[in-house]
Amino acid sequence: MNAAYGFNATLTAKPGKGDRLIELLLTGLDEGAPGASEHCLVYLVSRSASDPDTVHVTEGWTSEEDHHRIFAGEAAQAIVAKLGGLLAKESEYTDYVPVRGKAGF
Fold first, then answer.
1. Fewer beta carbons within 10 angstroms: which end of the chain, N or C?
2. Which letter does DSSP use for residue 46 in this model?
């Protein structure tokens, strides 16, 4: 299966809340959560090397439609609802079309 839609999001946590933000975002990989969907091919949470309260999320999806459908669901909306209290400012998004790559964990 190939990723036809993706994005990077940069989230800035309130001071000292970076660890909690990462914990919350990683629940997106739990069973029934968006990152566990067969349509989510990449779900990578990273931290800035220079600022522990800056977190990056990279996602790759089978289609933009699949992404929007999954994120409209209850599990995704529960995560999104909890994000607000942790963020210092609006998240920044860059959409893209994945071409090719590799991830090994």
1. C
2. E
> Shortest CA distance to 21 belongs to which of 53, 49, 50?
53
CA distances from 73 to 15, 28, 34, 37, 66 (A): 30, 12, 8, 11, 11
Strand segments, DSSP code E, in the chain are 5-12, 40-47, 54-61, 92-96
Q: Which residue has the tokens 């919350």?
A: 24
**Alpha carbon of residue 11 to chain centroid:** 9
Q: What are the pLDDT digits (tens) for 55-92?
A: 999 999 999 999 999 999 999 999 999 998 999 999 99
